[in-house]
Structures are given as structure tokens and as C-alpha cells.
Amino acid sequence: MITQLSIKNYALIDDINVDFTSGLTIITGETGAGKSILLGALSLLLGKRAELSSINDTSKKCIIEASFSIKRLKIQNVFEKNTMDYDPETILRRELFPNGKSRAFVNDSPVTLQQLQSLAPYLVDIHTQHETLTLFSENFQMEVIDVLANNENLLQSYSHELKEYFNLTETISELKYKKESANKELDYNTFLYNEIEQAKLKGVNLQSLEESFETLNNTESIQEVFSKAMQLFSEEHIGTIETAKEIRNALSTIKSYAAEYESFWERLNSCVIELEDLQESIHDATSNVEANPELLFETNNALQAIYKLQQKHAVATIDELLEIQNTLKSQIDSTLNLDEKINDLEVRQKKLHQKLTQLGTKISLTRSEAIPILKKKMEHILNQLGLPNARFKFELSKSTSFKKNGTDTLALLFTANKGLDYAPLKKVASGGELSRIMLAIKSVLASYKKLPTLIFDEIDTGVSGEVATKMALILETMSDKLQLICITHLPQLAGKGNNHLKIYKEDHNNLTVTRLRNLNAEERIEEIAEMIGGKEKSETAILHAKELLN
């Protein structure tokens, strides 16, 4: 419930600070005194978009702040969902600056307007004649039935499954689109993959392959060079090795004369040994070089295939080609696996569809059981409120699709007079009837769930006499279960309040300002007497006021 409200520099209000109590609080005042201003300030606090014209003195900011005791509402989850700090004594503050900017705070932490708007319905529910239009909403009508049917847990389960169902449906749709696109690329990717696969690149060393090709392609030249080298190495008298051996023999005769000469001999001896080893290696290599046209053809084909793939894929190494091959393989496998994946998801989707259908049927059944109870209670209350012939007809039918709140479609029909056919509520109910219907609904709901603070404005439109007394009793009964604030012109309602506030205008420093104050017992008598008999309060009016208060 709201425990305190402070309004500074808003419209005709310069500074108001008022405490609220539990039960029924009555607000009275002459037409034009500022009751709409008070509701406007509250609406701003609860997330309505700010207007610069709302500021009274444009040299200062406008501040609206209210304290709420919310422990009984058990709405911690709302704070958590909207990442706000929870406190059983929560404070909301809205600041509007002369430059048009505004700020909002919950428990002294800055919040966005969206966060504030998400919290507001759990704290205050304001009903004006305009607000009765929500009666025409099928969702609102269904919410009322669900409260009486105690469908909260069923609807939570249904909502959870529905969210998963919609997510799954979207995923399947995306995969089918992906499959359609992927199928167009599958043939091409398969061709590219096979082209690389046929090159058999695993374990291939490009440099070795190129060397093999050059060797096979130049066999005759290599053999000629090797033959000449062998000849030059070992030709008698003039061969390189033979010449080196003769020099070595000559040096051996003088190597004992000096260390330097011995060094010459050793160096040459090493050269002779190396040349003999080289000669042997060339001899072995010569025997390995043989013309092989078939192998040359195969090697050339392998190289050309690799060069072509490198050029096609704009890479320089076999490793890069193998990486492309692996990527293509993954893409092909992914495409081929889409059918299986889609099939698995569709099986899950079908199970969810069955579960949602079952939950929807359960919800529909509990609604069907709750509707006669709601109908009876509302018609009884409306009879007390001067609509003895008011009748409702709730037509519940199956929806062709899953809706946010189940699988039902609801048509609420109404008639206020005997002999007239039922018709949709918005076509046949007057403004006064809608206000009374809304009061009846809230009166019923108060017995079934914890409601936020209710504020009624003009709920008494078109009401007087005995009906006004009955309305006052209904509001009094409701206020036993929740905080109720009622702006009224009826003395019968004013007499039932636990707390009575008066809103009025006065001139201050050559300015007209709106004031709000708590009335004491004597002031309440005076105020109600004035509501009964006007400014000239007769003794009869005063006695009647005292009677209403007692």
C-alpha cells in the first residue's frame, strides 16, 4: 500500500506532503480543485511520459515521491526480473527538469522508464472512466476468470511450454531455410571436395614431387653429366682423383721435414678421400637414373593437378588445400545432417504441441467451472448497485491456435434490461454501467488475490440514494482486504472512509495553488454536510453527516 506521497512543483501544486493509511481513504473537493492534477502526478510517478508543461515554476525541477509498503504483495520476483533492488518499504521517485529531461528512481537506484512501468501495475491500479475500457479486452476478461479458477500454476506451466514451442518452431523454420540454401551449394561443395580428394594430397611433399619430376624429365642429361664426371674423376694419368693421388705421393716424401708440409699432405689426403666418396655416390646415383616415361607422365599429372587446385583456391601450400578439404567436408556433412536434425526437432515440437493441448484443455475446464461462480457474484453485486436486471453470458470456445493465455477464445455478452438480447459489452453498456461492472469485478477479485492499491475516480457517476449506500458498503468491504482510495462527490461514500483527505485551491503570493490535507473528525462532519446541503450547511445536513459517519 502507499504510505506517503510528496509532490513538489507540479502543475498548480507547489508542495504537498500527505500520509496514507490502510483501509478506505476518501478524497473530496470541489470540481476543478485539482483532483485530476493529483492523479496526473501519480501517473507520472508510475511511468507516464513527462511533459514540460507539468512544471509549475520552470526555474526549479518537479519532484514526485511515494513510499509503498509491499511485503504482503510478495512481488520480489518482479524486482529481480527487472534488475531492481527490492525493499519491503519501497520508494519511487520521479524528477522532471525544466529542460524536458526526467529521471526515475526505485529505492534510490536510477531506473529506466520501462523498468518503472513494469513495476507500477503491482503497486497502484488507477481507475477512471477511461480505464473502464479495459473491460472490453478479452485478455482482461480472461485474467478475471483465471483468478477465480486459480489457474496461476497451470498458466505458468503453459507459458513455459509455449515459449519453448515458439522457439522450437522458429528454429525449425530457420533450419529449413538454411537447408534450402545449403542444398543449392551442396553439389558445388561436393564437386570441390571430390576434386581435392582425388588429388590424394595427404602425405604428399610438393618439393620432393617436383624434384622427382625434374629428374625423370631430364634423365638423359643427368646420365651424360654423371658419365662425364666419372670419367674426369678416374681417367688414367689426367683424372682428378689420379692427379690428386700423385700429388699426395709426392708430398709424402717431404711431409716429415716440416709441420706445414705435413699439413699440406693431410689436407690433400682428406680431399682424396672425399673425392673417392663423391665418385662412389655419383656412381650409385647413375644406376638410379633410368628413363621411365610412364612414371614421368603420372608425376607430371599429379603436379599439374596440385598447381591447378592451388590456383583455383588461391593458396600456396598443400596444407592449405587440405584445410579447405576439411572445411568442405564439414559443410557437406552439416547439410546432409540437417534433415536428421530437423526431424528430431519436429518430434520434440509434436510432443510440445500435445503437452500444450493437454494444458490448454485443463485450463479451459477450470475456466468453465469458474465462470458460473463469477457470473453469479457479479450479477449479485450489480443488483445492489442499481442494475437488478444485469445479466452476463460468457461464451468460451476453442481457439485454432495457441494463445498467450491458453487455447480459448472468449466472448463476453451483456444485457442490463429484461427483454433485450445479449450483445457484446462494448456495444450495449453505458459509461455508468461500465464503472459499476468494473467495481463489481474488483470487488470479486479482492476475495481471491492480493490486489495493489486501488484508486477509483468517478466510480460513483450516475449513482445516488440507496444505490450510493450499497456502493459505499461494497467499497468498505473491499477495503478490509486492500488499500482503497476513492475520489468521490457522494456523501454516502465519504462517510465510510477510514481516512478523509480534502483537495482545494487557495491563493498564495498572488498565485492559485492546490492544497491537500487530512481532515479531523470535526472537519469531516463539515465537509460531508457541505456535500449534502451545499455551502449553507443546515442543521439537518450536519446531523445527516454525523449519521453517515457513525
Can you give a write-up of this model?
This protein is of the alpha/beta class and 550 residues long. The protein contains 17 helices and 15 strands. The protein has helices at residues 35-45, 76-81, 113-119, 138-149, 152-198, 206-217, 219-234, 240-252, 259-288, 293-313, 318-384, 425-428, 431-445, 465-478, 491-494, 521-533, 539-549; strands spanning 2-10, 13-19, 24-28, 62-69, 89-96, 102-106, 109-111, 124-127, 391-403, 406-415, 423-424, 453-457, 484-487, 499-508, 511-518. A 6-stranded antiparallel beta sheet has the order 2-1-4-5-6-7. Strands 8-12-13-3-14-15 form a 6-stranded mixed beta sheet. A 3-stranded antiparallel beta sheet has the order 9-10-11. The longest helix is centred in the middle third of the chain and has 67 residues, at 318-384. The chain is elongated. The two termini are 26 Å apart.
Summarize the structure.
By secondary structure, this protein is of the alpha/beta class.
